[in-house]
C-alpha cells in the first residue's frame, strides 16, 4: 500500500500538524504531508511547515474576518487536488468549510476537536467542559460536513477532568491526547481509503 497523501489546513500553532509530521518521521504513520495552507499569514503552522521543507501557501480570504469565501474554497480545492492529496486534515482551521471544498474531497475532509462530540462543539471546548462540571472530556476526530463540528465520528479519546484543573491544564491534557489520536485516525483512514 502506498503512503497516504495529506493536505493540512490550519490557522494557529499547528501542534496537531506537528504531531502528524512527528508520527511520520518516527515511522508510525505511512503518510506524506504534501501541502500546508493557512488563512493567517503569520500562523506558526506555516513556520513549522517551512522548517520541515513542506510546501505551504496562504489562503486569500478576500478580507473576510471569519467567512471562507467560495472563491477561496475553490482555490484551495484546486491547489490540494493539484498536489494529489488523498485526505484534507483540518488542524485548528478556524473557518467553516462548505460545498466547494467538500465536493472536491467527498468523505475526505477530517477535523480534530477538543471534546467528546457531540458534547461541547464550537470554541474553547475545554472551558465548556469545566463550566459544565463534567468529570471526563476528551477529543474527537470526525468527518467534516457543512455544520460546526457535526460530521460522523471516526475516533475519540477520553481525558479525565481533575478537581484542580483550570482551563490551561485541561486544554494541555486534551492536546496531548489529540497528538496521539490524530495520527491514529489518519492511519485508520489510510487503510479505508487505500487498502
Ligand atoms: C486543537 O485543539 C484542535 O482540537 C482545535 O484547534 C486546536 C488547534 O491546535 N480544532 P494546534 O494549532 O493544532 O496546536
**Judging from the principal axes of the Cα atoms, what is the shape?**
globular
Count of alpha and pi helical runs? 6
Rounded to an integer in angstroms, the radius of gyration calculated over CA atoms is 16 Å
The amount of helix comes to 25-40%
Average residue pLDDT: 97
Sheet/helix structural class: alpha/beta
Largest sheet: 7 strands, mixed
Strand content: 15-25%
Number of strands: 7
Q: Span from first to last CA?
A: 7 Å
Structure description:
By secondary structure, this protein is of the alpha/beta class. Helix content is 38%, strand content 22%. The protein has helices spanning 15-25, 44-51, 70-83, 99-104, 125-132, 167-194, and strands at 4-9, 31-38, 56-58, 87-90, 109-113, 136-143, 153-160. Strands 3-2-1-4-5-6-7 form a seven-stranded mixed sheet, with helices on both faces. Helix 4 links the parallel strand 4 (87-90) and strand 5. Helix 1 crosses helix 6. The structure holds 5-O-phosphono-beta-D-ribofuranosylamine. 5-O-phosphono-beta-D-ribofuranosylamine (GRF) binds next to helix 1, strand 5 and helix 6.
